[in-house]
Amino acid sequence: AMAVSISYDPVYGNPGQSMNTVACSNGKFGLAAKYPTLGDLPAFPNVGGIPDIPDWNNDQNCGTCWKVTVPNRNPIFILGVDSGKGNFNVSPQAFTELTGSTDAGRVNDIQYEKVSADNCKMPVA
């Protein structure tokens, strides 16, 4: 498997950000109808792009929850709302929770696994 990294983008940390600006907008598994903004998600601010959402047309992993771990830190849980283009790209708040600050910008070779949605404070279907 390819090594997966995690980085951050302030867009995912903006509670007013429209869900229509991410891959999980109005597709088959889109989230915009129920959660118009990122801040409406119970998971917020632990949201972002994930490796398993390629694009709007392949959105079946929208709303899935992922446990991300880096060495010597507690794991975080990220709700997938966008394409991470092969990596995780999350809010600055979540990145700081994971690494202690935003200084690194990107952390390579993370461990990650799909977990139950309730880990992301989301209702379990």
Query: Structural class of the secondary structure composition?
Result: mainly beta
Main β-sheet description = 7 strands, mixed
Quaternary structure: single chain
User: What level of helicity do the residues show?
Assistant: under 10%
CATH superfamily: RlpA-like domain
Give the overall average pLDDT. 96
CATH fold annotation = Barwin-like endoglucanases
Proportion of residues in β-strands: 15-25%
Calculate the terminal CA-CA distance, rounded to whole Å.
29 Å
Cα Rg: 13 Å
Structure characterization notes:
It is found in: Secreted. One of its GO terms (cellular component) is extracellular region. It comes from Ceratocystis harringtonii. InterPro entries: Cerato-platanin, RlpA-like_sf. The protein has 125 residues and is mainly β. The chain has one domain (6-120): Beta Barrel (Barwin-like endoglucanases), CATH 2.40.40. It has one helix at 92-99, and strands spanning 6-8, 47-50, 65-69, 76-83, 88-90, 106-107, 111-115. A hairpin with a 6-residue loop joins strand 3 (65-69) and strand 4 (76-83). It is globular and about 40 Å long.
Distinctive features:
125 residues; Cerato-platanin; single chain; mainly beta; seven-stranded mixed beta sheet; secreted; 6% helix; RlpA-like_sf
